[in-house]
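FORM 7B: Structural annotation worksheet

SECTION A. Query
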Amino acid sequence: MDTSPARRRPGTPHAGRRARLREAAEALQRIFQYIEQYSRRSLRDHGVTGPQAWALQVLLRKPDLPVGDLAQEMYLHISSASSLADLLEGRGLVVRRRDAADRRQVHLHLTPTGVRLARR
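SECTION B. Predicted structure
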């Protein structure tokens, strides 16, 4: 009996697995659509993208956060978190401060404007 994927019948256990995978893929697609809508709404209503708003929320909860820790909190590569911090700093929403004990370490702090925006 040939059980290669091309020969399996819909009633086999693999059909159920395929259906679950399809449902999971559809759920992920809905999640991504929601994130995109949230980002557009955030940009329209507050002038920041979804990821920027997320970073502000993280920094509101965890002030004085090193850039590397922000990257971990947001599941980003450190270079992406650094670019995000550049954007927020350029908009006057965060400031960078060097760690007094380890000058290589840079900590992010919300400005008063950043705090107000994060609390919305």
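SECTION C. Observations
Residues 56 and 118 are 5 Å apart (CA to CA). The radius of gyration is 22 Å.

SECTION D. Sign-off
Analyst initials: ____
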